[in-house]
């Protein structure tokens, strides 16, 4: 099977490529593969993929407020080209989206049927990407995930681990709640879904939810570090982009389809163990 993975060197793409090494893999990422470039559709059609897992994206949430045109060019227009190519060649399309398509005003987990209402440019651009994927005529599945962390690239867990080694006290937002998700677990779910007749929208995160502060406390505890994690508000954090206060995604459809995901605390332990093993191997 010919499987094309966009964002192949990112947090998720790196794991996907490892999981799919037994397939005819077509990994694509910057700088050679730019989702904002015109003519992308023809390039993808020429590759004749059987499956496209579209994990490539502009993911800088604050950056998207500064350059909304670029975020839209990558996440919406780029996804339109990817989706149209999938439709043209009859490829299965899995588009990875985000919890940030929601405004965070609910206090119960968001279902796939809930209407998106993004509060920032990043969320808006990803929602437009969702619409492009679902209206393309391709065999498309939109997988929304959240708070991703993995071995490749930058993420919240690595930032907290580094800060906990350098600072006696951390200040972390405690009024945003979501679902931490380990890239390895998400990749496993996507590979399973690649072979399933599942379309539309599906929420896939690790089980459980927490605030960013709760997430940070778990990281520090797992490190065995004696660092105080103080709560602050979103306003005190002073970030450029508005964030949803509550973006917990409902697991109900995923569970009904028999797609298991471990609890985020267990996933965090596995991630940090892998980090420690990688560090030991490099010394």
Please write out the topology.
Blueprint: E1 2-6, H1 11-19, E2 24-28, H2 40-47, E3 51-54, H3 61-66, H4 68-89, E4 92-98, H5 121-135, E5 139-145, E6 148-149, H6 156-166, E7 169-173, E8 177-178, E9 181-182, H7 183-194, E10 200-203, E11 210-211, H8 212-223, E12 228-232, H9 234-237, H10 252-256, H11 264-282
Helix pairs in contact: 1-7, 2-4, 4-5, 6-8, 8-11
The Cα radius of gyration reads: 18 Å
Tell me the helix content: 40-55%
Residue stretches low in confidence (pLDDT < 50, at least 5 long) are none
Please tally the helical runs, counting DSSP H or I stretches of 4 or more residues: 11
Which term fits the overall shape? globular
**End-to-end distance, in Å?**
39 Å
Q: What structural class is derived from the secondary structure elements? A: alpha/beta
Side-by-side strand order of the widest sheet:
2-1-3-4-5-10
pLDDT average, as an integer?
Answer: 96
- Percent strand equals 15-25%
Task: Tell me the number of strands.
Answer: 12
Main sheet: strands, sense, barrel: 6 strands, parallel
Order of helices and strands: EHEHEHHEHEEHEEEHEEHEHHH
Describe this structure in words.
By secondary structure, the protein is of the alpha/beta class. It has 11 helices and 12 strands. The chain has helices spanning 11-19, 40-47, 61-66, 68-89, 121-135, 156-166, 183-194, 212-223, 234-237, 252-256, 264-282, and strands spanning 2-6, 24-28, 51-54, 92-98, 139-145, 148-149, 169-173, 177-178, 181-182, 200-203, 210-211, 228-232. The protein has a 6-stranded parallel sheet, with helices on both faces. Strands 6-9 form a two-stranded parallel ribbon. 47% of the residues are buried.
């Amino acid at each position: 099977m010919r499987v094309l993975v966009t964002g192949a060197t990112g947090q998720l793409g790196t794991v996907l490529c490892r999981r799919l090494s037994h397939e005819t893999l077509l990994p694509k990422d910057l700088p050679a593969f730019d989702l904002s470039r015109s003519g992308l559709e023809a390039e993808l059609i020429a590759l004749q993929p059987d499956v496209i897992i579209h994990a490539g994206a502009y993911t800088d949430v604050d950056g998207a407020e500064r350059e909304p045109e670029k975020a839209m060019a990558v996440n919406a227009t780029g996804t339109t080209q990817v989706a149209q190519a999938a439709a043209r060649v009859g490829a299965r399309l899995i588009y990875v989206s985000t919890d940030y398509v929601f405004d965070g005003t609910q206090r119960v987990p968001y279902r796939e049927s809930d209407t998106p209402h993004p509060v920032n440019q990043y969320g808006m651009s990803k929602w437009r990407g969702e619409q492009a994927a679902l209206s393309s005529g391709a065999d498309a599945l939109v997988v929304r995930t959240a708070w991703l962390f993995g071995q490749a690239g930058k993420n919240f867990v690595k930032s907290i681990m580094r800060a906990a080694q350098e600072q006696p006290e951390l200040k972390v937002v405690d009024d945003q709640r979501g679902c931490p998700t380990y890239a390895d677990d998400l990749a496993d779910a996507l590979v399973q879904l690649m072979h399933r007749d599942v379309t539309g929208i599906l929420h896939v995160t690790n089980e459980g939810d927490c605030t960013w502060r709760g997430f940070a406390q778990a990281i520090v505890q797992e490190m065995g570090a004696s660092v105080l994690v103080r709560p602050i508000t979103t306003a005190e954090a002073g970030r450029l982009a508005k964030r949803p206060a509550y973006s917990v995604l409902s697991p109900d459809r995923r569970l009904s389809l028999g797609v298991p995901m471990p609890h985020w605390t267990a996933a965090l332990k596995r991630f940090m163990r892998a980090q420690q093993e990688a560090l030991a191997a490099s010394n």
